[in-house]
Specification:
- It is built from three helices and no strands.
- It is mainly α.
- The longest helix has 11 residues.
């Protein structure tokens, strides 16, 4: 899933550069491999159909969303 998410980000625009975090060398290799995953226009359309808001679920639980001042 993380490779797909990174590949999707890379497919969005040339000025988007994902910076994934990791705690292991194996995960670094997986993250780098995402750059070789090519998503077709049909792939991107299907992802947009499944996740029209570009994501699923909330990052923060209700009532815990930080307020940046």
């Amino acid at each position: 899933m993380s490779q797909l998410a990174l590949a999707w980000l890379l497919a969005q625009d040339d000025d988007i550069v994902p910076i994934p975090g990791t705690r292991s060398v194996a995960r670094v290799a997986e993250n780098v491999a995402a750059a070789s995953l090519v998503l077709t226009a049909d792939d991107l359309a299907q992802i947009a159909r499944i996740l029209p808001d570009s994501g699923f679920g909330a990052r923060f639980p209700a009532g815990r969303v930080p307020v940046w001042e």
